[in-house]
Design a protein that fits this description.
- The protein is built from 22 helices and 21 strands.
- The strands form four sheets. Strands 11-12-10-13-14-9-15 form a seven-stranded parallel β-sheet, with helices on both faces. The protein has a six-stranded parallel β-sheet with strand order 16-21-20-17-19-18, with helices on both faces.
- The radius of gyration is 30 Å and the shape is globular.
- This is ATP-dependent DNA helicase RecG.
- Keywords: ATP-binding, DNA damage, DNA recombination, DNA repair, DNA-binding, Helicase, Hydrolase, Isomerase, Nucleotide-binding.
- It catalyses: ATP + H2O = ADP + phosphate + H(+); Couples ATP hydrolysis with the unwinding of duplex DNA by translocating in the 3'-5' direction.
């Protein structure tokens, strides 16, 4: 399976480079590059029964051929196909090379869309095969359609894949135990790989997909659940009730019932002698940080240290400042460590953590670096977990001797995804917002109302409030998006907001510059902050009352909800304005959902249904490995079956080290590095 793709039939050095750009370097990776959909070519239509606006397959003989260029950069090739019931022109656009392959009198199979043009029908060709040619498919069948590039057309890719499957799929060894295959009536892996790429029937394709999705989800669940099946003795924290009482006195506001309930659940876990593994879910602004602070205080009062890892430097500093202010009253030493902490300060912080002088250390992924050691870490907290993933959580855990683990997320996660991302964690939900919070009024508007929106923002700024204006930024078009944000800032600073204090914030700025801008906004010196999505997570500015999101159709619902949560944190009425060019039914539906509810869980469910789990957390932000064939939302019942199977396997063989589980164990290890 490690054979380089270059040595496959129909590849060679040039095509090998194109395949490598798609992430396909060897035979094993190519075999697991699954079709995104299929086209059923078994149903061949008679030409006389064709109707407009249908995608059909016809088979007939080539008659007259024509080629013409109506204008520059447009060439049209037409071949009249006849099958005994009628004839129709098949049309190729901008493919002049096609004419050389078409011979009058040859039999051809053509697949494409039937168009009605000037009272006559034409077939716009999507794919074709000359019958009897060496590279033709063997008659009508279900054809796989792959995600390819312009430089590697579908037909050529399909030919490469077909050769690879026929030569190598039968050699793939079985990695699932025999009893499991029998119990769940699963195909063997070699047969499944052949059937997923070259299916004889829909039933065979579905059975192959089921087998491969089962394996993919099983490996993922084994990785996630492995920690639960290790018999580990944890740290038993102090049960003294006075710890909660003195903490409650130090907090300058009353706890909600939901906060009290979740603190109780966390404290009970911490008092047991088994390591805690708990996920706290709470909508934006629900008060998760106070729960985390209570847990950190319990760890310190029990004679240990606590660590809190967050995804961004701005958030690390914000948490560091708020926890320092709170714990200063309680005599607890808090420090903050990030990637940009200067060398001498970093050394001092590392020394303080090692000796135990620093009792609580807040930071970014800098916390999991080699040189950071703790004297006696008993609690590790990760905030916004989906940005870290299972592996980094494990690294933080290894900084102590079986410390308790607390994970917090402001992204309300539907149960199906929670099972997958956090299968090893018990769940707590903070389901009420603090009293006095006003619901954010949300409006979706088109760009023809832009000047009215600017006027509304100026009115809010004149009353002493502040506003955000967010521009989309995606990896695929990062440079263009950055330029657009910069141009908007220049236009507004010189025009509609020339009498106001503006600032621009984007991900390419140095950490110190970002911090200076955010600090200026927090202190009220900056009135309008124009930003790319770097403000999405956790920034707390109670005086900000307006969130304008430009090109809102380019965001997912969960992300829009997160951004909306940056306002509505103070006593004044807040507003979220979604400016959009939405033309599709899906984008209009997203805007309607945002206008109709502030409930994060309802939004998360809708987002998952609309976009699927692959995009749920945005580009590369979640800890979930990219699933190649399983779909968490559609395969929920399969996921639950697989979880039970994973529990059973780990109960019998916690390290997956003995036969017949060792091959499975080595695959989990190779993919997730979980048993080190």
């Amino acid at each position: 399976m490690t054979t380089p793709v270059q040595y496959l039939k129909n590849v060679g050095p040039q095509r090998a480079l194109l395949l490598q750009k798609m992430g396909l370097k060897n035979v094993g990776e190519l075999l697991e590059y699954f079709p995104k959909r299929y086209e059923d070519r078994r149903s061949v239509k008679c030409i006389s029964s064709l109707e407009p606006n249908q995608t059909e397959t016809i088979r007939g003989f080539i008659g007259a051929l024509k080629e013409f260029k109506p204008r520059r950069n447009l060439s049209i090739t037409k071949a009249w196909i006849a099958d005994g019931t009628g004839s129709i022109p098949a049309v190729w656009f901008n493919q002049p090379f096609v004419k050389k392959q078409l011979e009058q009198g040859r039999e051809i199979m053509v697949h494409g869309k039937v168009d009605g043009k000037y009272q006559a029908l034409e077939l716009t060709v999507q794919d074709y095969e000359i019958i009897g040619k060496e590279d033709a498919a063997t008659g009508p069948r279900i054809l796989p359609v792959y995600g390819t590039t312009e430089t590697l057309p579908q037909k050529i890719f399909r030919k490469i894949m077909s050769g690879c499957v026929q030569q190598y799929a039968p050699r793939v060894s079985e990695n699932l135990p025999g009893d499991l295959l029998v119990r769940h009536q699963l195909m063997r892996k070699a047969a499944a790989l052949q059937a997923i790429h070259l299916p004889e029937s829909w039933e065979e394709m579905k059975a192959a997909r089921h087998r491969l999705a089962f394996e993919e989800l099983l490996l993922l669940q084994l990785a996630i659940l492995a920690s639960r099946h290790r018999e580990e003795k944890g740290i038993s924290h102090d049960k003294d009730k006075e710890i909660f009482t003195s903490f409650q006195k130090a907090v300058p506001f009353p706890f909600t019932e939901a906060q009290k309930r979740v603190i109780g659940e966390v404290f009970r876990d911490m008092e047991r002698n088994k390591p805690m593994a708990r996920l706290i879910q709470g909508d934006v602004g629900s008060g998760k940080t106070v729960v985390a602070a209570a847990a950190l205080y319990k760890a310190v009062r029990s004679g240990f240290q606590g660590a809190m890892m967050v995804p961004t430097e701005i958030l690390a500093r914000q948490h560091g400042q708020s926890l320092s202010a709170l714990f200063g009253k309680l005599g607890v030493e808090v420090a903050c460590l990030t990637g940009s902490t200067p060398g001498k300060e970093r050394e001092a912080l590392c020394e303080g953590a090692r000796t135990g002088q620093i009792q609580i250390l807040v930071g970014t992924h800098a916390l999991i670096q080699e040189n950071v050691r703790f004297k006696n870490l008993s609690l590790a907290i990760t905030d916004e977990q989906h940005r870290f993933g299972v592996m980094q959580r494990g690294k933080l855990q290894k900084k102590g001797v079986q410390p308790d683990i607390l994970v917090m997320t402001a992204t309300p996660i539907p149960r199906s995804l929670a099972l997958t991302l956090y299968g090893d964690l018990a769940l707590s939900v903070i389901d009420t917002l603090p009293p006095g919070r006003k619901e954010i009024k949300t409006y979706a508007v088109k760009y023809d109302l832009e000047q009215r929106i600017f006027s509304f923002i100026r009115k809010e700024l004149d009353q002493g409030r502040q506003a955000y204006m967010v521009c989309p930024l995606v990896e695929e078009s990062e440079q263009v998006d950055l330029q657009a944000a910069g141009e908007l800032f220049e236009r507004l600073a010189r025009g509609e907001f020339k009498n106001y204090a503006l600032a621009l914030l984007h991900g390419k700025m140095k950490s110190r510059e970002k911090d200076q801008v955010m600090e200026g906004f927090r202190q009220g010196r900056i009135q309008l902050l124009i930003s790319t999505t770097v403000i999405e997570v956790g920034i707390h500015v109670p005086n900000a009352t307006v969130m304008v999101i430009r090109d809102a159709e380019r965001f997912g619902l969960a992300q829009l909800h997160q951004l909306r949560g940056r306002v509505g944190r103070g006593e004044h009425q807040s507003y979220c304005i979604l400016m959009h060019h939405g033309k599709t039914v899906e984008s209009r539906k997203r805007m309607e959902i945002m206008e109709s509810t502030n409930d994060g869980f309802a939004i998360a469910e809708a987002d998952l249904k609309l976009r699927g789990p692959g995009d749920f957390f945005g580009t590369r932000q979640h800890g979930l490995p990219e699933l190649k064939i399983a779909n968490i939302f559609e395969d929920l019942s399969l996921l639950e079956t697989v979880r039970e199977e994973a529990h059973g396997l780990l109960a019998r063989d916690p390290g997956l080290a003995t036969s017949p589980h060792s091959l499975l164990g080595s695959m989990v290890q190779e993919k997730f590095k979980i048993f080190t």
